[in-house]
Amino acid sequence: MRFPMEQARAFANSQVYGNGGGQGPGGGQCDAVNYAYPWHDNYCESRSYSMPLCPAGTGHQGQDIRPATCVKDTHWAVAAEAGTITSVGSYSVYLTAADGTRFDYLHMSQVQVAVGARVTKGQRLGKVSNVFGGTPTTIHLHFNIRQSVANVGAVYVPPYTSLVESYKRANGLAPTPDAGAADARATDARATDARATDARATDARAADGAVLPEEPEEPGVPVGPESPDELPTPEGELQAEQGAGLEPIAEEGCNGSGSAPSYGLVGLGAFVSLAALRRRRVKA
User: Fold this and answer.
1) Percent share of the chain, pLDDT over 70
2) How far, CA to CA in Å, does 184 sit from each of 43, 64, 270?
3) DSSP run (H or E) holding 63
4) E-assigned strands of 76-166?
5) What's the gap between Cα 140 and its chain centre?
6) CA 217, CA 213: separation in Å to the nearest integer?
7) 191 alpha-carbon distance from chain centroid
8) Is residue 253 packed enough to be buried (19+ CB in 10 Å), middle (13-18) or exposed (0-12)?
9) Which of 158, 263, 266, 273 could potentially form a cystine with 240 if both were Cys, beta carbons 3.0 to 4.6 Å apart?
10) In which band, very low, low, confident or very high, does the pLDDT at 200 lie, cut at 50, 70 and 90?
11) What is the pTM of this model?
12) What is d(CA 3, CA 243) in angstroms, rounded to the nearest whole number?
């Protein structure tokens, strides 16, 4: 999936519980805090819409995203995937991909597409604005992903993780590796370390004619590298919102809450060098 805004700088957060929102702490929608990291997931934020995947059974159907600056009718929203435009409402555009996934874009102005149009990934759809029928909302893109889920049916699924990964790619950051790739790299790293250890041992024997012991001279001192800890694995949260049917159900100009993702890194285990072991042996 491509990030749904053309400019690779945006801020995902609540329009209702942020500054300038109806349930927020005050201030205005253009306050700097609304245009700063970290992001906040507002899928399942308080709403009355039926949402089978939300704990309460109701909630916000997708993710609200502010553009790079608090200026309407300036920043382009683009197609997350190639597909067909299946609906254009008074403040919504629905894009359906070949696999049936539907991407919903709300509150745009200057819409560039019509029903039935074929679009390519990254193609401009309209400009991020505050269009919401007769009453303007805040300047943002409301983005939904609707898919068919086994034993549930066609529902709005959490878009947050997909948005995080696509945003990282748009900004030239490496995507989160999957578990299989991480395991493969860990195996390769251990194999490389083992070969390097063997080579150093061979060099040491050739240099002084000494034969290193099979076991450490003292209990608890490893001869070779220990097993590394798990490779760094970024972690992230996800979540999403939106209305049902081809014609959009009125979306509450933004009500919500959410939590930002956290990322952690776990270092590799330490190694005892053969040079250190040789020095210990000489002293003995």
Assistant:
1) 61
2) 34, 37, 20
3) strand 63-66
4) 76-78, 83-88, 92-97, 102-106, 108-109, 118-119, 124-128, 141-149, 153-157
5) 19
6) 7
7) 32
8) buried
9) 158
10) low
11) 0.65
12) 21
